[in-house]
């Protein structure tokens, strides 16, 4: 908990090292999620469902690769289009309202 937080955010300071760590994680996490999705589609959807008991059940396997692959692709496209429409039509709807607070150099932020 505490050790990991201090390592990630540099003891709660906002400096160059902290920002570099934040931007690095912010850049690499979507790549890791995309990699996990591709691994999921490649291995799970290509093999079909199996029997967890280890009994040979080749006659019971369902070749569900095409259906679930298309379902996943269409689902991702739907979600991406939904967020793209939201951000293009009303771009400020997903923002933090604190971003519109005017800057005052004489006040230290909390």
From TrEMBL:
Component of the ubiquinol-cytochrome c reductase complex (complex III or cytochrome b-c1 complex) that is part of the mitochondrial respiratory chain. The b-c1 complex mediates electron transfer from ubiquinol to cytochrome c. Contributes to the generation of a proton gradient across the mitochondrial membrane that is then used for ATP synthesis. One of its GO terms (cellular component) is mitochondrial inner membrane. Keywords: Electron transport, Heme, Iron, Membrane, Metal-binding, Mitochondrion, Mitochondrion inner membrane, Respiratory chain, Transmembrane, Transmembrane helix, Transport, Ubiquinone. The main subunits of complex b-c1 are: cytochrome b, cytochrome c1 and the Rieske protein. It is found in: Mitochondrion inner membrane. This is Cytochrome b. The chain crosses the membrane at residues 20-44, 73-94. Residues 54-110 form the Cytochrome b/b6 C-terminal region profile domain. It comes from Neoseiulus fallacis. Its main location: mitochondrion. Residues 1-53 form the Cytochrome b/b6 N-terminal region profile domain. One of its GO terms (molecular function) is electron transfer activity. The lineage of its organism: Eukaryota, Metazoa, Ecdysozoa, Arthropoda, Chelicerata. It is a multi-pass membrane protein. It holds the Pfam family Cytochrom_B_N_2. InterPro entries: Cyt_b/b6_C, Cyt_b/b6_N, Cytb/b6-like_sf, Di-haem_cyt_TM. GO terms for biological process: respiratory electron transport chain. PANTHER family: CYTOCHROME B (PTHR19271:SF16).
């Amino acid at each position: 908990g505490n050790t990991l937080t201090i390592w990630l955010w540099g003891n709660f300071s906002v400096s160059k090292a902290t920002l570099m760590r934040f931007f690095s994680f912010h850049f690499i996490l979507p790549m890791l999620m995309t990699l996990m999705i591709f691994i999921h589609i490649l291995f799970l959807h290509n093999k079909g469902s199996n029997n967890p008991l280890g009994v040979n059940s080749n006659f019971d396997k369902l070749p569900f690769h095409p259906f679930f692959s298309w379902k996943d692709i269409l689902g991702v496209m739907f979600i991406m289009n939904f967020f793209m429409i939201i951000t293009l039509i009303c771009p400020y709807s997903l923002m933090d309202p604190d971003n519109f607070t005017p800057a005052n150099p004489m006040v230290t932020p909390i």
